[in-house]
Amino acid sequence: MFVIDRFEGDWAVIELDRLTFNIPKVLLPEGAREGDVIEIKVSVNKKATAKRRKTAQKMMNELFEG
Question: pTM for the complete prediction?
Fold first, then answer.
């Protein structure tokens, strides 16, 4: 369970069990307050990842072949 522990400037300190980490406050929903339980979902955008890899490969090919 992710809980907003406190705010420090532009950062929110999030607690998960006994671990804490910071995220920018702008990523939280409007009105989120200390003590609120939040949901955090992380996923891989496969289409964007493939595009970035293709661009990086093209740049490496141009660098090493040029």
Answer: 0.73
Contact in structure between 35 and 3 (CB atoms under 8 Å): yes
List of residues 6+ apart from 22 with CB closer than 8 A: 8, 11, 12, 13, 14
Q: Where are the domains of the chain?
A: 2-65
pLDDT tens digits for 8-56?
999 999 999 999 999 999 999 999 999 999 999 999 999 999 999 999 9
One DSSP character per residue, 22-55 reads EEEGGGSPTT--TT-EE-------HHHHHHHHHH
d(CA 33, CA 39): 14
Which pair of tokens denotes residue 49?
């990842």
Six-digit token string for 5? 């522990």
